[in-house]
Amino acid sequence: MSRRRTLSPRKKLALLVSAAAVAGGGAFVMATTSNAAPVQNASNSTVCQGLATALGNNQTFIDGQRAKPDAQSQARIANRDAVIAQIKVQQAASNCQVGESAQGPQAAQPAQPAPSAPGKQQTTAPAQGAGGGAATGRQVCAGSTVTLSGEGGAPAASSNQFPAGTKLKVTNLDNNKSTTVQVTSVSGSCALLNNAAFEQVREPGKFLIRRALIEKVG
C-alpha cells in the first residue's frame, strides 16, 4: 500500500510563489513598463525643443564645414562632435528623445513687432540683466530663437551672419535678462550662445529662448 506524500505548509507556499512568478511574470513586466514616464520630444516639451535645436545647430555647422572645408575644419568638427555627444547626454537626463535634431529653429515662432519705417534705425530700451549693461543697437535676426552651443569658456557667441569680433546683445524677453557677448566662431544660426553666456539669460531648466531680442552693438 503506497503512502501519499504530504507537503509541509512552507513548501506549499514556496510552490505557489514559484507558480505565480512564472504565470504572472509577463504581466509584471508589462505593468512596470507602463509606469515608466513617456519619452518627450520637441513637439511637447520646451526643454526637449531647446536641446533638439542646439543639436541641430551644431549639425548644421558640421555640414557646412564638410561642404567647404579649410585647414581648421577637422578640428572644428571634432569639437562640435563632442558638443553633440554632451547634448545627447542632456537629452537622456531630461527624458527627451536622444538624438532628436530640430532644423529650421526660426519656424513657428511668436510674431515679432513690425519693423520700423525705412530710414530709421530700430532701437530698444535697455534691458537690465546679468552682463547686459545699458548698450542698445540695431535689432537683427528678428524671430530667431536662441539656444546654447554646449561649449565651455568665457561668455561668447557664434554666428552664421556676423564675423568674429562682432558684439551682440541677447535679451531674453521672458525674464528681461540680457548679456552682451563677442562672436568668436561660426555656427549654424544667427546667435548661438556658449554655456557661460546662456546661463546669464536662461530660465531655470530651459535650453531654449523663444522670445529673444538680438541686437548688434559693436
UniProtKB/TrEMBL annotation:
Record region (Disordered): 98-136
Residues in the signal sequence: 1-36
Signal recorded as keyword: yes
Superkingdom classification of source: Bacteria
Keyword Signal attributed: yes
Biased composition (Low complexity): 101-111, 117-128
Protein name: Secreted protein
Keywords (A to Z) from UniProt: Signal
Organism (species): Streptomyces kaempferi
